Amino acid sequence: MRGIRSYSLLFRRFFLNLDDRLRLILIALVVGCFGGVASCALNETLDMVADWVRDYRSCWYGPFLPGVGAALSFVFLRYVAGEGKGHGVPEVIYSITRKGGLLRFRSSYTRLVSCLLTIASGGSAGPEAPVVISGGALGSNIASFFHLKERQRSVLVGCGASAAIAAIFNAPMAGIAFTLETILGEWSQVNLIPIATASVAGTEVSRLLHGDQIPFQSRVLHFEAKDLLACALLALFTAAMAVALIRSLRLVERRSSRFHRLPGWAIALAGGILVGIIGIWMPFALGEGYEPTRLAIGNLFPQGLAFVAFALVAKVVTTSFTLGTGGSGGLFAPCLGIGALTGLSFHR
Length: 348
Fold this sequence. Notes:
The chain is mainly α. It folds into two domains: 2-210, Clc chloride channel, CATH 1.10.3080.10; 225-347. The chain is 74% helix and 0% strand. The protein contains 14 helices and no strands. It has helices at 2-16, 20-54, 65-80, 89-98, 107-120, 128-145, 150-169, 172-183, 189-210, 225-257, 264-281, 290-297, 305-324, 332-347. The longest helix is centred in the N-terminal third of the chain and has 35 residues, at 20-54. The radius of gyration is 21 Å and the shape is globular.
């Protein structure tokens, strides 16, 4: 133990004697690797558990599985981990703006577990927000280990978030843009270099563990002048669906708060059961939403405008019930699915 402590002390002194900018970049590289591992671990576990649960959805108790998963997620997050419900990204932004980037270490894994329970059982939520708070918590605690200043710690929180997003989508630019625009809220050279370093590191870890996979295969499109008008109309249609999702989610949250005398896990259980019932008639409304997005982009979604419209409305409702009643996860992936179905409905 003494030998380990002495090496740790020497290692920390070595870093403290480096130039501040170089030290931040090197630590960002480490944070990026950890963020990429967290993202890949969640993706692999989600796929494995979801495939296992899928075999039981045709059973008589299949509609109850999303409710059980949401209830277990709530119990784990509230009573085991001692954390409140939330989507993850607002907590990261709040920690940067109000707490100097301080995040508890347990947030690096508790959100991943609760998200896994919700999504793998069929809940309509996304894994992006949990990996953002996981990567941010890793960056925050690594910064605290090296006794960095608040400003540097906030940047490393952004590095963890950037690496997580980049690893999920195999797109380093997506992680950079998301972090600078949403998490930090500013584009500056001081922030850009370490965040870009972490984003590339997270992407490379993902490619090392998963291969160079593209989440959504696209086709070469040829646009004409008249297509610009259609895109403008589609933008209005998509904005209307986004507003509908926000209002639906807030409505479910308000109605759920009226049952404050009931335990939170019971409300999450009821919301999840409603999601499972909808999933009987529309399986595409279950899960994070990647599958309907892929099918819509590849023009492989089942034919018929009525079917697509039903899938679109069902996805909005299941997302609202999952997150509004206490399920754990983010909105990004469901929004991708809703956006893809909106575009497909507009096309048909």
